[in-house]
Amino acid sequence: DLSHNVILYLEDITVSFDGFRALNQLSLAIDAGELRCIIGPNGAGKTTMMDVITGKTRPDSGKAFFGQTIDLTRLTEPQIAHAGIGRKFQKPTIFEQHTAFENLELAMKADKRVRRTLFAQLFDDDRDRIAAVLTQIRLDREADRPAGLLSHGQKQWLEIGMLLMQEPKLLLLDEPVAGMTDDETERTAELFVSLAGKHSLVVVEHDMAFVEALGGKVTVLCEGSVLAEGDLAEVQEDPRVIEVYLGR
Ligand code: ADP
């Protein structure tokens, strides 16, 4: 059932570590432009799933396709990034001594498709692109501040901005609002909602208020496979989901 609109398609993915199945015949389909949340108890396999999508972990069996034709199980991590999958980890990897603007500039120049050295002059349209992303991530007023002086939330947004400079089709975000204030969390939800449509987003998250604010479909992972899928309200009423969360 590879429908035309699917950007990410996993089928029967199994990953074992010393005989332990971190993923057990996991199947998942994400539509182009979708904003999907992945929830589930610790050890459910959320991180391992992200690792399979980005090529960090090779599945023992199963299919993983990006769009209709790109077989992720045959590509290296850099090839997958180049194909248009961007991943944001929890720990920011921004350059703290450089300004917010310079961080985005570096991200742009690091993009293989741009083919420009780090010392090359910026063109006007490069500046416009960086300015547009700074506005998108609400850092337009912080453009010239060293990234190290930004708040925790602003650093996270800057890192998302660095991903956006490479124009990924699919963004993978691992607990993006961990440690953020309520206000930052709300603004992050607004940012993600605004990115959906043009980008597809897969968000692993524990913060249910944030998941609710995102408003997309929710997939519940448990013991390496999909336990439930639907609106947050729907999955929260599912007796199997309640059991998994209350049983811990
Ligand atoms: P989650 O992100 O949902 O908390 P993980 O994907 O990190 O779950 O882990 C799923 C299971 O696989 C856990 O029981 C974890 O201990 C195990 N696991 C993950 N990575 C490894 C590894 N490299 N070696 C051994 N076991 C691992």
Q: What would your notes on this structure say?
A:
The structure is a single chain. The chain has 248 residues and is of the alpha/beta class. It has a domain at 92-167. The chain is built from 9 helices and 10 strands. The chain has helices at residues 46-53, 77-83, 100-110, 124-136, 152-164, 182-195, 208-214, 232-237, 239-246, and strands at 6-17, 20-31, 35-39, 61-66, 70-71, 85-88, 170-174, 200-204, 218-222, 225-230. Strand 7, helix 6 (182-195) and strand 8 form a beta-alpha-beta unit. The longest helix has 14 residues, at 182-195. The chain starts with 5 loop residues before the first strand and ends with a helix. Residues 17, 22, 40, 42-48 line the site of adenosine-5'-diphosphate. Adenosine-5'-diphosphate (ADP) binds at residues 17, 22, 40, 42-48.
Keywords:
9 helices; six-stranded mixed beta sheet; transport; 248 residues; alpha/beta; binds adenosine-5'-diphosphate; 10 strands; Urea ABC transporter ATP-binding protein UrtD
Summarize the structure.
GO terms for molecular function: ATP binding. This protein is of the alpha/beta class and 248 residues long.
